[in-house]
Structures are given as C-alpha cells and as structure tokens.
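---------- Forwarded message ----------

FYI, see the thioredoxin-dependent peroxiredoxin record below. Original note from H. follows.
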Amino acid sequence: MNTLQAGAQAPQFTLQNQDGESISLSTLLGSNQVLVYFYPKALTPGCTVQAEQLRDHKEQLAQFNTVAVGISPDPVKKLKNFETKKELNFDLLSDEDHAIADAFGVWGLKKFMGKEYDGIHRISFLIGQDGTVKHVFNKFKTKEHHQVVIDYLAAQ
C-alpha cells in the first residue's frame, strides 16, 4: 500500500453518491477544501460513529471552508440506507471497484480476527482548493476523528 502524502496531487474522481448523482472532486473543491475520508463499510459500529461525528460537526468544518465526503466500497443503495438511518448531511460516495481507494493508496491487506483480506484502511485526506493533499489523517480513534480534523484546521 502506497498512501498519498501531503504535497501530492489528489487523484481526480467522479463517483455516484447515495442519491445516484455523479459527484466530482473538482466540483466539491469550488471555494472549499475537502476532507475525503475513506471508511470500510457503511452501518458498522466504527463507521457509524465516525459519520455521526462528522454530521454533528458539519458547521464547525464549514467555519474552516471544509466539506466532508465519505468513500467506501459499498453500493449506492447501501449508502442511501446509511444516510437515511443515521440522518447524514454530506455525500457518501460508492467506490465498488475500489479504483479511487487504490489511487489514494488506502486499499490493501488487512487483518481481523486472524483472517487476512484486502480492504479499505481508515485514512482521511484534507485536499486544498488547488487539489493538493494538505494533510493525511491516519492515526485517530473513530469517535475522535472529527476533533482531530477540527484541531488541525484551527491550528492552520
């Protein structure tokens, strides 16, 4: 796994969101920076906590001209279910073939309960308006992810 680092150009992408709409990184950037967060699977405990915290702190992120977007290998229908059940207020993008996860370097070997498999590693990228990676968040607890991001933004 070769994860993108700060200073690298973020891969451009267009993926379907939970409503089946095509969402592009270039459109999201507009006048904002984008927190692209990769998560393994919708509606699982850790992914739910992480999404709910970003939902609840959307306004704080907006104070730093930052929007969040989640990417997982889940199909659009499951993302819609996740958004509805957890009342999420940001785009969830479907990367079923994990091409974008590969491009960001977050798809790779994982170990869980003695089993090895390929999957998404929980890593987030702050993408600046110019399309470059400003910061990589790879060491955090799911329930503290939002605070780690906000603390970083506040220190800039």
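H. also flagged this: Residues 14-155 form a domain with the Glutaredoxin fold (CATH 3.40.30.10).
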